[in-house]
Structure formats: structure tokens, C-alpha cells
Amino acid sequence: MSPITVVGSVNRDFVLTVEDLPLPGETVLARRFVEGVGGKGANQAVAAARLGSRVRLVAGVGTDAAAILDALAAEGVDLDAVRARERSTTGIAAVVVDDAGENTIVVNPGANAELGAADLPELLVRTPGEIVLVQHEIAPEVVEVAVLRAREQGGVVVLNPAPARAVDARILAAVDVLVPNRVELAALLGTAPPATVDEARDLLVRADLPCRAVVVTLGADGAVLKEADSPDTLHIPAPSVDAVDTVGAGDTFCGALADSLGRGAALPAAVARAVRAASYATTGLGAQTSMPYAGQLDPLAATSAS
What we know:
By secondary structure, the chain is of the alpha/beta class. About 30% of the residues lie in helices and about 25% in strands. The strands form 2 sheets. A 9-stranded mixed beta sheet has the order 5-4-1-8-9-10-11-12-13, with helices on both faces. The chain is globular, with a radius of gyration of 18 Å.
């Protein structure tokens, strides 16, 4: 089983639940407040660790991160490459979730913005075939160096281009698996987000992105996979669940995908397992609190590919 290195962000999450998301200028009363550990890097690291992977996190935090680091260590995440900034605070995410499970999120990057290329371990890939998982809540130059270094060192590079921003074709060409949602895919291609599964499939076929595979996550519609060596796409539908909160579902997907790839799973099987994990994560409140352990995926009905 290959280990995983996650290069990304760490945040303190403040989650408020409301009946309906507020309109501009509107004040609403929250029904519940939860504080927890978040950030795409931390979330994806925990998601993979809970499924049994050996995970190292590369990230930046502030001097206020003691409780966060304790929580990540308790999940089994290796924190040797997490850098503390003496004059910074840890990133903060304010999350508002409504009764339908929809959310709005505002992030103050804090120490995440100070993570530099010099903070990356010289060896991102410590063993052949190690999975290196990167996202966009850190500076573009850090993403670039991480992706290219991991490729040069023989790693399997998974890039989650979130939040949405353009990615240079040279970087995409070094990526093994690109994992955007429909909005992030649209940002990469300069087009409107696909509204349906069929539109996502058509868009992937026409896009001809230079990475080796693209997996578009579609929320309750599951995911669509397009591999570079195949003219066809594969739709993996999601199981039906009672969604409470979609925060962290995409990060759970990425962590579960990395875990499965590290175990040697073929990409279609890895995507199907990631869809099940992400669906499970929507059934509880908060990004990390609802992430499944390996045994908790079993009660969900297995998805079938179409």
C-alpha cells in the first residue's frame, strides 16, 4: 500500500446551521454552532487516514493551532511537515448551512497564504508510486512546485483545483488524476458549468485536457470519469442518502480516491468507492466529523457504473 502526502490548507471551521441561507443584507438566527478542524488539506488528509492510509500533511498553521494539531495527530496524520508561523493565525472558515444541506463559506487564509515552495519537503515522494494530493487553498506557485516535483520524483499526482482558478497546461500535463467539481471544470475550460450528467460527459470529451484522467464530481449525481486513453466516459451514480451537510464531501471524495489508488485499485473502482464515501459524509454536520471509516462504507449500497 502506497503512502499519501497531502499538500494543502488547515483551517479552524466555524459552522452555523440555519433554516435558509441569508439573502444580501438579511440577518438570520442560527439553530446550532459547531467548531472543528477544516481546510482542504487537513480534510483530505483525515479522510484518507480514516480509511487506513499512512498520510503525511504539508501545511502552514499559526501559533493558535495546538488543539487543531492534536486533533489531526489523533487521526493518525503525520505532522512533521506542518510549519508554524509565529506571527500568523491559522486559517479560518465561516460556514453557513441550510436545511437543504446547501452552504456558503467565507475563508480567511491566515497561515495558509504564507506556505511557500521552500516549505515543501525535498522528497515529496518517499516511496515509488506514493500518492501526492494537492488543492488550491494555497498559493499557485506552491501548487506548481508540488505538482512538478511529485511528477519528477515518480509520484501519482492528484490535483483538486478548488477553489476554482485557471491552471497552466504544463501543470495539467503533470497530473495523473484531476478532480474538479462542475464549477471548477467550467473555470478551467472557460465555459458554463454543466447542468446535467450528459453535459458533463460531453464537455469532458470535447475538452481534451492534457492530464491522464479527469474525474468530475457532481454531488448527488455522483461523478463522471474520463481517461485520456479512452474516447468514452464513465458515469458513477451516487447512492441515495439523507443529506444534512455537504461541507467536506468533496474533500472526503479526494481522500477516499487517494486511499483507493494507494491500495492499487483501478481508477473506476477507486472513483466508485470515493462516491460512496462522499455520500456518507453528507449525512452528518461538519467537514471531518462525518467522514467515514472503512467499515462504515459497507452499509451503503454499492453503486453501479453506467
